[in-house]
Structures are given as C-alpha cells and as structure tokens.
Amino acid sequence: MTVRDTAPRSADVVVIGSGLVGACCADELSAVGLSVVVVDRGNLTAGTTASGEGNILVSDKPPGPELDLGRLSRRRWVELADDLDTDIEFDEKGGVVVAPDEASAVGLAELAARQRSVGIQAVEATGADLQELEPHITPDLTLGMHYPEDCQVQPILASAALLGRARSRGAAVLGQTVVTGIELDALQRVRAVTTTRGTIATPWIVNAAGPWSSEVAALAGLHLPIEPRRGHILVTEPRGRLIHHKVYDASYVGTLTADPGAAQVSAVIEGTASGTILLGSSREFVGWDRQVDGDLVRRIGARAVQLFPVLADVKVMRTYVGFRPWLPDHLPAIGEEPAVPGFIQATGHEGAGIGLAPGTGLVVRDLVTERTPEIDITAFRPDRPALLPTPELTHG
Ligand SMILES: Cc1cc2nc3c(=O)[nH]c(=O)nc-3n(C[C@H](O)[C@H](O)[C@H](O)COP(=O)(O)OP(=O)(O)OC[C@H]3O[C@@H](n4cnc5c(N)ncnc54)[C@H](O)[C@@H]3O)c2cc1C
User: Fold this and answer.
1) How is the chain split into domains, by residue range?
2) Could you identify the atom of ligand 1 that is nearest to the CA of residue 323?
3) Cα separation of 12 and 14, whole Å?
C-alpha cells in the first residue's frame, strides 16, 4: 500500500467524503475519464456508511422523486454487483412489511396500492403465505406485504470496492486529510480546495460529507441545514438463516417523516451473510452523542421479539449508534449550488443513503459532464425553499 504525503496539485473533481455516496460519485466520475481526488478527514468509509444496515429499499418510498432515485439506484446496484470484482454481499432477498393491527394494515394497503400504480411489486401475504416467507414470524399479524425488489448490500465492502475501482482508474483517495478551506474566484466559482495535505486546484467540488456536510458547505459560504439523526442497531450472535427477508413493521414508514421530538422506535429486522441478525431501529435528535441508550436498546429488542418470538433466545453481541444526515423535508440535496458554480451537493440522504448512493453518483456524473440526468432532480435542488435558513424550518 502506498501512502501519499501530499495531495495532487489539481483535479477535474474533488469529492469530499469517502462514504458510499462519495465512493459512487468517484466511481462514476473516474469511469468517464475525469481525474478525481477523494478526501476524507478520517479513515476511509468510517462515517455513517459504516453504521448502515445496507438495505436498498423501494418498499418504504411512496411514488415521487425519492422513489425515482431509488429505482435508478437499485438498477445500478444490480449492475455494480455484477461488475465489481469483489463480493459486496449484494442480495436480492426481498422485503416483508407487516401490520400488527387494523389501522396500520389500512395504511400499508394504501401505500402498496399507490406503489403498484407506478409499477412496484407489492404482493399481499397473510396467514400461511406469510409463514412460508418467514417461518418464525408471529402469526399474530393483520397484514403482510411482500416486496420482492428490496435488496441488501454490505456498505463497507461496497464502498471499499468502488473506491478501489476509482483508484485503479487513476483517482487519488486520501484518508486522514481534512478539508480546511474552499477557494472561489472573483465570480464566486469554485477554484480550489485547501486541505491538510496541500491545495488542490479544481473547477468542481462534490460535497459528500454526510451528516457533516453543513460544515463543508459553510467553507464555501453556503447554508445547508443538515443535522445528525441518531440511530441504534443491535447485532446478535450468528444464528444462520433465521430471518429470510428484510422484515419491518409498517409503523417504520411513519417514523421516517415523523416530526422531530421524542425518540421513534420501530421494528426493523434482518439476517446478514455472516449469520448475525441486525435489529433496529431508532430515530432521534441528540446531537453527536455516541452514548448507547439502554432504554432504547430494550425497546428495540422487545419489538423484535414481538415480531419474531424465536429471537428471545438469541444473544445480542454488540450495540452501536450512527448518525443519519437529516434534512427538514426528508429529501437529499443533489445539485449544483446556483450561488457557487462548481459546488455540487450530494448529501442529506438520511436513512436511505446506502440505497440511493449509486443513483446519486450517476446524477453527479451527469451534472459535471453537462448531460441531462435520467431522472428529474428538481425536488433535490440544494436551493429549494425547505432548505432556506428560516427559523420555523429548523427543528429546534
Ligand atoms: C443506524 C443506521 C442504519 C442505517 N441503515 C441504512 C440502510 O439500511 N439503508 C440505507 O440506504 N441507509 C441506511 N442508513 C443511512 C446511511 O448509512 C447514510 O445515508 C449513508 O451512509 C450516508 O453516506 P454518505 O457517504 O453521504 O456519508 P458518510 O458515510 O457519513 O461519509 C461522509 C464522510 O465525509 C467525511 N468528512 C466529513 N467532513 C469532512 C471534511 N471536512 N473533510 C474531509 N472529509 C470529511 C467523514 O469523515 C465521512 O467519512 C442508516 C444509517 C444509520 C445511522
């Protein structure tokens, strides 16, 4: 392994952040022959990407711009899993959403009907059908919905493979390199990025700094109201294939867009290739507090056992927290900043950044190469009204 002391002096594009979003951007940009430098102030891929469960979901998205990005990304994930020369544990395992009572069953059935109207596969599964999909699930459920298109990937493996491929095309990928400034020219256009390993002259910057993106944006005089939305995950001892799909409670979709306030908990359960089972999840605003909250851990565990009584005998091996990059309208910011030409935001994917990263990489490539993106990205504009600095639009 070669460790560079200094950054290259110039690049066509500097990508700030080596999480999955930055890695997908670097992969797509280097694939079209651009010279790329990726800089990360910490270890590579050690930000929120290292906390993600790796779900690539269509099931939790109603028709609209996020689902469009999700479908573009899903298609690209399938291609990446084929093309990359390492195993990224990509698994088209499907998702199962369950409604424990009548009220949540009505909401789930309505969402599924809307999704079907745009071509998403959502198949009702109750009773024996549901037991066939998930033999250990409680029979005490009102409705189940099978989403065969939901998938899973191992986020760290995927990110490392994408950064490796970008590197093999000539990209420089620098960990332990802090971005300390952004230089603009007299017309407010991007001119250079200053880092702790030197200055890199560049006409394009991609801000893929995840939950820290507001700090990077501020270096260019830009406002971006990203905040960290904390989540807990419990990892069990390896128990083989007890759980076959991504299984979650229909209330999960409500927690995605719930107003900030008390911590939200919903049951999100799935197995992994190594045999461990991931139990989630919680959503709360507590700043950057990394202290695991025992009460939330118990609530997550209890919800999981309600859904899969067999889990009562499975030990939790470790518990960790991560920070989702949250924006007030729950949509990512993807696009060039009109006030600072050359500065592209690629951030704010909250709890869906693993799933949405490949589509984001394609869109960023198209912006830099002046092609028209395959999907309409108007809703992701970084200067949209929901992201403006008005007091009532920040959470508190
Ligand atoms: C508990 C939990 C579970 C999740 N599960 C899923 C899931 O199943 N599916 C899904 O799609 N999403 C999931 N997510 C969300 C997903 O993990 C994120 O949306 C995604 O990882 C964001 O990736 P990113 O590349 O934007 O940011 P990150 O991975 O955070 O990368 C940003 C990088 O920028 C670097 N950086 C920051 N500031 C600077 C600077 N000044 N200079 C240089 N580098 C800098 C950081 O060091 C970091 O490495 C989950 C999140 C959590 C917390």
Assistant:
1) 13-52+155-226+329-393, 95-148+227-326
2) 53
3) 7
Tokens 């202290």 sit on residue = 291
Q: Whose CA is nearest to atom 20 of ligand 1?
A: 353
Span 327-376, pLDDT tens digits: 999 999 999 999 999 999 999 999 999 999 999 999 999 999 999 999 99
- Which DSSP symbol is given to 371? P
For domain 13-52+155-226+329-393, give the fold. FAD/NAD(P)-binding domain (3.50.50)
377-381 CB contacts, 8 Å cutoff, 24+ apart: 377/65, 377/334, 377/335, 378/65, 379/64, 379/65, 379/66, 379/331, 380/65, 380/69, 380/331, 380/332, 380/333, 380/334, 380/335, 381/333, 381/335
Confidence of residue 77 (pLDDT cuts 50, 70, 90): very high
Q: State both tokens at 299.
A: 């609530």
**Beta carbons within 10 angstroms of residue 394's beta carbon:** 11
Please answer whether residues 357 and 21 qualify as being in contact, where contact means their C-beta atoms are separated by less than 8 angstroms. Answer: yes
Tell me whether the omega of the peptide bond preceding residue 168 falls within 30 degrees of 0, making it cis: no
pLDDT in tens, 255-283: 656 666 678 898 999 999 899 999 999 99
Task: Considering the domain delimited by 95-148+227-326, tell me its CATH architecture.
Answer: 2-Layer Sandwich (3.30)
Pocket of ligand 1 (CB under 6 A): 16-22, 39-42, 46-49, 51-55, 178-179, 208-212, 215-216, 231, 233, 281, 322-325, 347, 349-355
